[in-house]
Task: inverse folding
């Protein structure tokens, strides 16, 4: 039976580390790091995530600047707000909660964020910096996956890694991070032929495809480490109820792998902990503090 990788506990440790870092930062800089979070509209899941981010920020001793705009906000008004936040010296990190309402061009809004405040790591500049080995911010979810992998496996050099999913915010940055760790990286996607065979050769599997329990236990190499990024709500056995499952068939994977992240309680909590980590790093860079 595989070990369960406890992302919730790891994230709590990271948040505590950040809290201590914030205290040291404030003593030197005479101010707390500041994170601006922009939420447009009433998406209930987004509202929950933004509340969690605010609470985590305050608990870590950071300033949280919340901007909750109505769903009808125009793209021009949102871009104007980003411009103000870019220029605000109290703001070290800017995050625009996704998804945005359909009438707003997400790419245009993300690209408007100053890369030095892009604590979500979503701008083209941040992606380019990661791809070329320059200092910059790494998207929080893949950064959290990497931390869990390094904690579990230590040196990743030479390991074979398969990432299922090629999104700009998880699959691609994950591939860059694992390449930087000298893994042999394969990105699988919806057109990949014989996915079972591709996954079967991997020491590390990162599933980020958004399809409930798509990766089967029988596809895994015995002893693999499995990181499940998927958060899918599906009907539960009890009539009218729902439950969360990942992109990996968890019970099957537990029979074959060496270690698996659960859903919930695996990668998800790392996302917010890494956001705090990036915000502290942004503040230190802006103040020239090592
Ligand atoms: N600007 C951003 N937008 C979005 C991001 C992001 O990183 N930046 N990621 C997601 C949502 N998200 C944070 O924003 C997020 C998702 C899930 C979790 C989490 O802890 N999940 C729990 C389960 C939660 C539940 O019960 O529903 C878990 O997996 O244990 C945290 C943050 C999209 N938008």
Result:
């Amino acid at each position: 039976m595989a070990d369960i990788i406890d992302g919730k506990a790891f994230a709590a440790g990271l948040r505590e580390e950040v809290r201590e870092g914030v205290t040291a930062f404030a003593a030197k800089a005479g101010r707390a790091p500041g994170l601006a979070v922009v939420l447009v509209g009433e998406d209930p899941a987004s509202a929950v995530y933004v509340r969690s981010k605010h609470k985590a920020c305050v608990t870590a001793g950071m300033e949280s600047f919340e901007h909750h705009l109505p769903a009808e906000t125009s793209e021009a008004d949102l871009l104007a707000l980003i411009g103000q936040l870019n220029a605000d010296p109290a703001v070290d990190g800017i995050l625009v909660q996704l998804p945005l309402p359909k009438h707003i061009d997400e790419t245009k809004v993300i690209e408007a964020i100053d890369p030095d405040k892009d604590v979500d790591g979503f701008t083209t500049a941040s992606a380019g910096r990661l791809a070329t080995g320059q200092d910059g911010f790494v998207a929080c979810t893949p950064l959290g996956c990497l931390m869990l992998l390094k904690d579990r496996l230590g040196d990743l050099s030479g390991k074979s890694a398969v990432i299922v999913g090629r999104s700009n915010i998880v699959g691609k940055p994950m591939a860059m991070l694992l390449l930087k760790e000298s893994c042999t990286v394969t990105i699988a996607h919806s057109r990949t032929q014989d996915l079972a065979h591709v996954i079967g050769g991997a020491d590390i599997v990162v599933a980020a495809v958004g399809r409930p329990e798509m990766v089967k236990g029988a596809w895994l190499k015995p002893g693999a480490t499995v990181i499940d990024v998927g958060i899918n709500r599906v009907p539960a056995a009890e009539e009218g109820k729902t439950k969360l499952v990942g992109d990996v068939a968890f019970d099957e994977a537990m029979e074959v792998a060496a270690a698996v992240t659960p859903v919930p309680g695996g990668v998800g909590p790392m996302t917010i902990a890494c956001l705090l980590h990036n915000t502290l790093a942004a503040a230190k860079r802006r103040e020239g503090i090592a």
Q: What stands out?
A: The mean pLDDT is 98. DSSP finds ten helices and eleven strands in the chain.
